[in-house]
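Customer escalation, tier 2.

The customer says the design service returned an amino acid string that "doesn't look like it belongs to this structure." They asked us to rerun it and document both sides in this ticket. The original structure tokens are below, unchanged.
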């Protein structure tokens, strides 16, 4: 039950699939905050994630579907927090 003045936050799931440390598919993506050849910082429904690697490039980005595909040499994936991600990163500003 939600009391008056309270807002219920619904978190959708997200997933991460790594294929041979050369390709990673994220779902539940809200935005990509920053990216370069060594690091991709993204916001998901479950919080922020940083992907580390070499020669990284974004192969597919669909914010409507919440999907991001990154290819390159994957070194690490780091969850930044467990709170719902904020809205309003780099790509959301570009595509408003």
């Amino acid at each position: 039950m939600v009391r008056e003045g309270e807002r219920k936050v619904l978190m959708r799931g997200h997933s991460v699939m790594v294929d041979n440390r050369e390709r990673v598919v994220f779902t539940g993506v809200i935005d990509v905050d920053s990216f370069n050849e060594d690091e991709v910082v993204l916001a998901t429904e479950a919080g922020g994630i940083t992907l580390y690697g070499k020669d990284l490039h974004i192969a597919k980005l669909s914010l409507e579907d919440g999907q991001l595909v990154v290819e390159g040499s994957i070194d690490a994936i780091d969850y930044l927090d467990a709170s719902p991600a904020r809205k309003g990163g780099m790509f959301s500003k570009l595509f408003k």
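Tier 2 assessment: The sequence is consistent with the input. The chain has a mean pLDDT of 82. The first helix runs from residue 90 to 94. Sent an explanation to the customer and offered a walkthrough call.
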